[in-house]
Amino acid sequence: MKHFETEKLAKAQRPKHRKGRLSARTKVVREVVREVAGLVPYEKRILDMIKTGGASSEKRMYKFAKMRLGTHKRAIKKREDMKDIYAQMRARQAMEK
């Protein structure tokens, strides 16, 4: 039985393997939007939790983010993002002084 000759695609080329990957254009657009619009109110609350600190601040930030975002992974990622933003803010303040 004969068949039609097809070209084999490498695993990385298949659309299902590319889905969700951040493109350069999307990254730039998100950076511009963040710069122009600033933080969402719940993100500001998470930043306040970082500033006040305390022993259970990590857990409180996680629980608050999970309540707003819905999933474990998203909450952890948001917490780490907010920590990075806070570190950048601190570094900027240190450079100004």
Automatic annotation (TrEMBL):
Residues 1-23 are annotated as: Disordered. It comes from the Eukaryota. InterPro entries: Ribosomal_eL36 (IPR000509), Ribosomal_eL36_sf (IPR038097). GO terms for biological process: translation. Residues 11-23 have a biased composition (Basic residues). One of its GO terms (molecular function) is structural constituent of ribosome. Pfam families: Ribosomal_L36e. Keywords: Ribonucleoprotein, Ribosomal protein. Residues 1-10 have a biased composition (Basic and acidic residues). GO terms for cellular component: ribonucleoprotein complex; ribosome. Belongs to the eukaryotic ribosomal protein eL36 family. This is 60S ribosomal protein L36. The lineage of its organism: Eukaryota, Sar, Stramenopiles, Ochrophyta, Pelagophyceae.
